[in-house]
Specification:
By secondary structure, this protein is mainly β. The protein has no helices and 21 strands. It comes from Hymenobacter nitidus.
């Protein structure tokens, strides 16, 4: 019998929804006012939010504990201010910043009328603050390849990889740390990841994984793999 890597699926249609006239947030884990059973943090990973922010608006959030926040734009640029960081983060960039406990981070839509969309991923900070860092990448480098965007060796023990695949293309993710937790999140399309079927905006938590096998089940399928 083939032994399956331990894991847990987080379905897209079971994400929490927080919505006002200014923003719409889908939360994979408990976050801010959204609190539900079985949506507790996965290891250091405390939140994975997909945020849509209306034109000209600003959103402020408070870090309850010392946190690493990874910001990844999906549509449009987002202004980010938090800790020692003030930056405009574009598509094909990822911003990593450290927030002391009880500090505030703000996200600003710099366009007057256009919506923007971005991920903000929250992890418990390591013992020592990580310096802010901006990572750039080219979507062409993601074609049928899991490209490393953030290396675990560079920043506080976390790594981020992205890949965009044609249908039936395969990849294997090898963790940089044998004891790491992994979280895969499908941004577009569908994948089979370690024997689990994942559709758009589904997530999969994995642990005790020596390697992770992925296969795209649709064209232009886009997946994120976070290691921590």
């Amino acid at each position: 019998m083939i032994q399956q890597t331990p894991g847990r699926i987080y379905l897209a249609d079971q994400r929490g929804l927080t919505e006002t006239s200014r923003f719409r947030r889908h939360s994979t884990f408990n976050f801010d006012g959204y609190q539900q059973e079985f949506k507790e943090p996965f290891g250091r990973l405390r939140a994975l939010n997909e945020e849509t922010l209306a034109g000209g608006h600003r959103l402020e959030l408070t870090a309850e504990t010392a946190s690493l926040v990874l910001v990844l734009p999906i549509i449009g640029a987002v202004g980010v201010a938090g800790g020692s960081t003030v930056a405009t983060v574009q598509v094909e960039e990822a911003q990593l910043l450290h927030l002391p406990a009880q500090s505030v981070i703000s996200f600003t839509n710099l366009y007057e009328t256009e919506l923007i969309s971005f991920l903000h991923i929250w992890l418990t900070a390591a013992d020592f603050p990580a310096p802010p860092q901006l990572f750039s990448f080219d979507f062409q480098a993601l074609e049928n390849n899991l490209a490393v965007i953030v290396s675990a060796a560079a920043q506080a023990g976390i790594a981020l990889s992205l890949g965009r695949f044609a249908g039936r293309q395969e990849a294997v993710y090898s963790p940089q740390n044998a004891e790491a937790h992994l979280f895969a999140f499908v941004l577009a399309g569908a994948f089979e990841v370690e024997g689990r079927l994942l559709h758009e905006k589904d997530g999969l938590a994995l642990w005790q994984a020596a390697a992770v096998e992925l296969e795209a089940l649709s064209n232009d399928a886009l997946v994120l793999v976070l290691e921590f």
